[in-house]
Request: fold
Amino acid sequence: MASLVGKVALVTGASRGIGRACARALAKAGARVALSCVRHREQARQAARRIQDDGGEAHVLSFDVGCKKEVDEGIRSLEQHWGRVDILVNNAGIVIDGLCVRVSESDWQRVLQVNLSGAFFCAQACVSGMMKRRWGRIINISSVVAEMGNGGQTAYAAAKAGLLGLTKSLALELAPRGITVNAVTPGYIDTDMTAALPQEAKQRILARVPLGRMGRAEDVAQAVAFLAGEEASYITGHTLAVNGGLHRA
Ligand code: NDP
Reply:
């Protein structure tokens, strides 16, 4: 597949995990890829170098998706660098787990700010150019817990469910301008985010996954690359589950 030649993609949270795999998959499909991070700049640089070693074009940006001012400046600098953003993958995310009664107001706000407001700010900063060019792809990385809920993750699940509403509304708003907006809901994927789970919890989760394994970041990246491509031009407002059968909507 090399259908993204000439396109510029921005993947937020691409220093590691799912975002890094998405950046590689989009670069492999021919896109020039900007990898954003917030703390692990060296890891993002390494990921970019790997893409360049494979013959692709990559650029590193650092901004907090939860801060509108930083998002606007970061995306403006990318538009100056490569002239455009055609594909936005809203992948940056955090989890702060805790039972409802113990979640602090600041943790609640931060989880919503990064996972939900961050996607909105990035979309807002990218859509004008996409609308002018009458082509665009926005792909929001939500989660299986948006659809099935998860005790101890009220803020995270609420933010990820909010992303699905954002996806559907934005899809309606932008369809007349040739821009598709879709969501991907990963199940349990083997990354830093899930590495902290106790072995026992991992085994409990695995027992519920019909395909019998944790997902790989590349499993999610393939779905993202498909939605970004010309092959998916008639798909919008859709939620694509990549969860090994853990949950069927
Ligand atoms: P990781 O924790 O491995 O990576 C998170 C990425 O997000 C990093 O690149 C990090 O940058 C970036 N990030 C975090 N906070 C911010 C911020 N405020 N501004 C900009 N970037 C930020 O996560 P995964 O790869 O596991 O997850 C990626 C996405 O997929 C997330 O949205 C997550 O919620 C979702 N997801 C993951 C699942 C899983 O099982 N792993 C399941 C379902 C959904 P830096 O390295 O610089 O800190």
Summary: The beta strands are 8-11, 32-37, 58-62, 87-90, 136-141, 179-186, 239-242. The radius of gyration is 17 Å. The longest strand covers residues 179-186. The chain is about 50% helix and 15% strand.
